[in-house]
Amino acid sequence: MVELIQISPCAGLLPITLGSVTLDEQDVGRLTSLSPFGDASDLSAALEKAHGCTWPKPNRSTGKDGGRCIWFGRDEALLIGPAPDMGLAKHGAVVDQSDAWAVVSLAGPGAVDVLARLVPVDLRDAAFKRGHTVRTQVMHMNASITKLGTDHLMIMVFRSMAGTLVYDLKGAMAAVASRG
Amino acid sequence: MRLAGKGLVDRSTPVQFSFDGTTYKGFAGDTVASALLANGVKLMGRSFKYHRPRGVLSAGSEEPNALITTGKGAGQEPNVRATVQEVYDGLVTRSQNAWPSLDFDVMAVNDLGAPFLGAGFYYKTFMWPKRFWEAVYEPVIRKAAGLGALSGKSNEDTYERAYAFCDLLVIGAGPTGLMAALTAARAGADVIIADEDSLLGGRLNAETGAVGHQSGAAWAAAVVAELSSMENVRLMSRTTVTGAYDGGMYGALERVNQHTSHRGGGAPLECFWRISAKHAVLAAGALERPIAFQNNDRPGVMTAGAVRAYLNRWGVTPGKRVAVFGNNDDAHRTARDLAAAGVHVVALIDSRNDVAVPDFDGRVFKGAQVCNAAGRKELESITIRTATGEEALQVDCLAVSGGWNPTVHLTCHMGGRPTWREDIQAFVPTDGSIPNMTVAGACNGVFSTQQCLNDGVEAAKAALKALGKKNADVEVPKAEDAPYQMSPLWAVAGKGRAWLDFQNDVSVKDIKQAAVENFRSVEHMKRYTTQGMATDQGKNSNVAALAMLADATGRGIPETGTTTFRPPYSPVSIAAMGAGAQGHGFAPERWTTSHKRSVEMGAPMIEAGLWYRPSYFPKPGESTWRQSCDREVGYVRNAVGVCDVSTLGKIDIQGPDAAKLLDFVYTNMFSSLKVGRVRYGLMLREDGFVMDDGTTARLGEQHFVMTTTTAAAGNVMRHLEFVTQALHPEWEVSFASVTEQWAQFAVAGPKSRELLNGLLDEPIKGESWPFMACGPVSVVGVEGRLFRISFSGEHAYEIAVPSRYGASLFDILLKRAEEMGGGAYGMEALNVLRIEKGFITHAEIEGRATAFDIGAAKMISAKKDCVGKTMAARPGLVDEDRPQLVGLKPVDAAKQLTAGAHLFERDAEAVRINSKGHVSSVGFSPDLGTMIGLGFFARGPERHGEVIRMVDHLRGVETEVEICHPVFLDPEGERVRG
Amino acid sequence: MRFSGWRVLREGLTGNKGWAPHWRDPEPKAEYDAVIIGGGGHGLSTAYYLAKNHGMTNIAVLEKGYLGGGNVGRNTTIVRANYGQQGNSEFYSHSLKLWENLEEDLNYNAMMSQRGIINLFHSDGQRDAFARRGNMMINQGDDAELLDREGVRRLLPYLDFDNVRFPIYGGLLHRRGGTARHDAVAWGFARGADQRGVDLIQQCEVTGIDIENGKVRGVQTTRGAIRAKKVGIVVAGRSGQVAAMAGMRLPIESHVLQAFVTEGIKPVIDHVVSFGMGHFYISQSNKGGLVFGGDLDFYASYAQRGNMPMMEHVMEAGMTLMPMIGKAKVLRSWGGIMDMTPDGSPIIDKTDTEGLFIDCGWCYGGFKAVPGSGFSFAHLMATGEHHEPAAKYRLDRFRKGRGLMDEEATGSQHNLH
Amino acid sequence: MRIDCPMCGSRDRREYYYQGGAVMLARPAPDAGEAAWDDYLHLRENPAGETEELWQHDGGCGAWLVVTRDTVSHEISNVALAEDVKRAMRKAS
């Protein structure tokens, strides 16, 4: 009997710890892209009803582990965790992206310094607090970065670029570690 | 010579390093220059053109003479400033631009030829005989030019780039900068203070004056300690702010490990910072300028401030018998400090008549000038010209001060031009040159320590105000507050050569000659003489050269011109600014889910729009790629082939206006497409040329999935964003790239249905999936999608599953295909298969092809508007004489076709005006037993069956070819429907 | 005065007292047969060829700054004739032939150095595209050779062949391409024009173009009105502004292109190397500096300076292609203003105003065109007929879509060429 | 250079894609004639001074923007979402 086996985007690449920072793949469950056809208010209401998190403002996330919604760009949010309620599709496009992204966590003292080697956005706590999220770039890759806590970030890039993400982060981690 | 009890070096940490093979001792905190001077070494380099012996001139990054090479093997680094490079145990350095040795340099013969090698001489000669320029003259000139040498080996060191953000960037950590940083930091601002020196404090570390109740150096150390303890402050030593850019962006180079032996691994040698600052304070100080006189370049002639720096900071006296020559009060301090340290000050020569001089045990000449220096490799004496005559003095060091130039450089980086100030005979920054930058201290022409401290506070307050932050109380300590008095003296009159640009060997005579030859504009003079084009960018000489040009042309300095500087402030390694890109870091690598298996199968992987795709899958016994390719083509034509097509762009489009969007971006109609069906679409750019093509499937009434070519996926996505945001924001439609979500495989060939039926939970029966049908399927329990489409002309499908299952599905498909006499096929076979069917790719729609050219003019629907429709109707785009798509086959089946060859009439000469088209794609068709090709030929569609000529000069191929229909196999399309 | 090695020797022996100005600084006359607006490379060569080829010596070049102060003095000095499109191919071919005799012609050493240009390719598709271009070059009568990977390795052993993001498949070698000393080209043409009687007038900005009844009458300048029967606009970087004085709008958007030079180092790169995947090209000057550049900064600009993102991209390209240059240090960076057209090719044409001509739109390829552009523009201005090698550089080609020369095949977006 | 994206805030120029003049928002009717289309696609005011341009924040939120920027000083005086500008244009016409 044939069976399709699942392989995660960073299989065989992670985890890595260098200095005080650890990079690991994160299994966050389902990823669903939500885009309203027009105004987001109906979609927001449906979202709150079904999943307990509202439509996020730009650069912010709502909800919590297991049911988080992060702002994902213009007119787009990403529902992370649960399978989407099918009722959402009445108010906008609901697109399964569970396999489209490599999701990693970077954690430990100095995690923000590591990203400062690759990301052109100020991710220090004063400017980028827990629950804040950005669409930006990691080196040459478009990415989504969300702060889960002090020195704890979730980073997403396209699945096919998982190898490059690990390569770039590893180099930055080594450089930060070398400064002690 | 090192003096006991002087300086800030760490005498408890001795260090050994080598220069030109000799080992020397220094201390932690020494630069190569200070340590060599301490060891009595004065000759450190040779000049660029005349190879004149040179010693150190300065004590900073502006050094034009003491350029050395450090490191070995791939670590070799040329043109390192001995005045910046710190010594560490094991540091290897050597001199450069000298052969066979620094002491005896054959090329010094150039100096004797100087009368023939003056400014711009090379523009007037080396023209005869003609071919001698490239054969003889140029190679000799190239070899003689240049300074140090690269190793020629690939970089092995680690470099780094990083971003930083702050409210206030303070550039320079002298008295002004430290005070500015302290003021802003205490007020709670997020502060970065950067200084190129290893020790923060600027001139305070080089002077003896007190600040408050302690020495300047001690005060600086105390402020640095306080700043270090504050969380809102980042101190960056060994960090040169190299450029000012738009929007408060600054480039900065940190020399992370240039002062240690730490190499390799993760440890970066240097880091290039991109700093985003809301406000900046430029506190970069000032640079002292020499005075031109005959032989003023002899080793031992230095700037007066540099002599004080070596004395007070490094505890080194550059000479045992020192004279000081200046046109300003500042020079007097050098005499005073040297005398206080017990060094023999032979004389103080001040060009001004009426000045008060400090009391010391040496001769004083007022209203006098040094007019010559003697001693070739080491200064032996100077000649002084007074009102009464000339006199020679035996000295081994001459400290010279022609005044100070504010360090205006960064303020010029955004096009600002500095302003001339008559009172200090120098340029100062022009207000507003860099938005949100305040210039303070010596770089703004404020020269006393006290004034600098005050100015630092004021600059910080201005910044705080702009940032909307409250001031904090900062007490300004008391410090030296002497006025800066000077009288201009650029060059001492006399015969012989008086040097301005030391490194490039530009003398006062050269400037004058340039003026005579009518190079009177500053830019002309610079370019003609190379003045200011050396590694110091003219920091030491531009103002004096400008004064000389003004003098030669009878104009004032401000009327003559100004100086300008471009980034970087001091040179930055390519490796630092391009850090991370070496090897594979230059662009992301995109791997399909079948990548690993393809590599294991020995497939050469080729690049396609950042993705890697397999070229072919070699089998044992195959010695050429053609053998593999032919076999793979056979799989598809005769059994079943499997190919990963996940790299094609897939865009999920939904919403009430989804069909409207498709009708607008495609030339043909999509609103009429039935749910569950797929249609081929052609997309134009607004200028009417073909942008991309692909199939789009309708999954629901308001739900489509568009396919793009691999290379154009990003462009098409942007195009859709443009249309829906900038042209039709009223449309209710959303789309998202789902390229990465789905692993998609082509399963092609007569046995494709049979293969799939072993995997589909609900097998395909009869006509349940006709050609161009699509829909959801269950693939061994996984929700997938199936499309009955073909890029090979065979009965074929594309099957998609979520990417996590991609690798597994590929393996299963392969195994089944192999059992059925088929297998995997790569890009080479895919190319042959599609050429046989006349399907186009980006080889045909390369950006200059129109719908008319590819025979698709009728695909532009007359019933609606679409992007590109109007411009595609321009007369030039539908000209009957345009080369149009044709099939090509050699008249002699054994002959070769090559892509990139041009096409000519059979009897026409193969020259430009006769070229009537070209070959775009070729492949060997195993079915036809010959090479076939696609190409474009003027009026080609009218000429099927005619024989023309293909000429590829580059590959030496010339073939008679027959024009034919671009579909070579199965023109009726029976197989694809069967 | 004729320049030669003997002259340098004689002057050297007699104290270099005999050198004369390379050109005069005349006062503008009230009227000329023709006036050239713009004393850059193209303007000076136009004046030179008007005088030399067409006997028009009662002409003036009006320059608002100093001669050769625009892009001719701020570029990466590359000279080549390796174009693939009809129209460009014959033009650059003609220009290269003029370069090959320039020193003799001008009696000025412009240091034309035919050290060879190699355009690298990184896939089979790119190889075929370069083959098409190379064949066009040979069809035109120029030189081209298709090198495989080993052929490239023999010439450029220092490239990273083993660990590089875009592997090197081969290169198109154009041996007659190379570099020249940019300033000397401008000065040589200036001196040549001056010797033939042309008035080169610096610090003279044109502020208006006088047109009556559809005919040009002259120009207004900061040094007074000057009457002229013919006026040529040759002001790369300011073409839009000057054309607007005649009521014209041009198919041009101005962009900034950065270039970089390192500190002098001993010879290490003997050719001009171009890396298409990274939009990077490099050569080494005779003084020892590595001279290199990349793509446009991509936003419209007249600022003559760029920003860090493109600078870093250029450095990245250098590091991935030839990591042996890592320890060379960038001494200076600068930016030039590029007249970008919708097909990336230039314009040499008449205008709707009789007697008014325009030469513009050289994108970032203007330097190598200096002799050819002047030659062809002079021909057009003097005879009223298009010079054959430049005959396709028409203003109306965009409107009609006829004879577009889109070398990059990127379409009508100005900054993509 | 930094551009203040109305969605994302101030971001480095490297996150943005530049297209050209904001004239591209005003697409002519298909039958507007040769001159109108020539204007739209090719001819440019190309001022040395303030101008309106189309950029896309493709390394960020993906929004198309109308950026008012000086081509000499590079100073940016306004950034708006292209969709808002386009809607306003429609309302006005």
From TrEMBL, chain A:
It comes from the Bacteria. InterPro entries: TrmE/GcvT-like (IPR027266). This is Sarcosine oxidase subunit gamma.
TrEMBL record, chain B:
Residues 595-864 form the GCVT N-terminal domain. Pfam families: Fer2_4, GCV_T, GCV_T_C, Pyr_redox_2, SO_alpha_A3. Residues 167-364 form the FAD/NAD(P)-binding domain. The keyword Oxidoreductase applies. The keyword Hydrolase does not apply. GO terms for biological process: tetrahydrofolate metabolic process. Residues 495-580 form the SoxA A3 domain. Keywords: Oxidoreductase. Signal peptide: none annotated. Belongs to the GcvT family. This is Sarcosine oxidase subunit alpha family protein. It comes from Sulfitobacter sediminilitoris.
From TrEMBL, chain C:
Its EC number is 1.5.3.24. Signal peptide: none annotated. It catalyses: sarcosine + (6S)-5,6,7,8-tetrahydrofolate + O2 = (6R)-5,10-methylene-5,6,7,8-tetrahydrofolate + glycine + H2O2; sarcosine + O2 + H2O = formaldehyde + glycine + H2O2. GO terms for molecular function: nucleotide binding; sarcosine oxidase activity. It is found in: Cytoplasm. Its main location: cytoplasm. Its cofactor is FMN; FAD. One of its GO terms (cellular component) is cytoplasm. One of its GO terms (biological process) is tetrahydrofolate metabolic process. Residues 35-78 form the Rhodanese domain. It holds the Pfam family DAO. Keywords: Cytoplasm, FAD, Flavoprotein, FMN, Nucleotide-binding, Oxidoreductase. Belongs to the SoxB family. This is Sarcosine oxidase subunit beta. It comes from Sulfitobacter sediminilitoris.
Automatic annotation (TrEMBL), chain D:
Signal peptide: none annotated. GO terms for molecular function: sarcosine oxidase activity. Pfam families: SoxD. Transmembrane segments: none annotated. GO terms for biological process: tetrahydrofolate metabolic process. InterPro entries: SoxD, SoxD_sf. This is Sarcosine oxidase subunit delta.
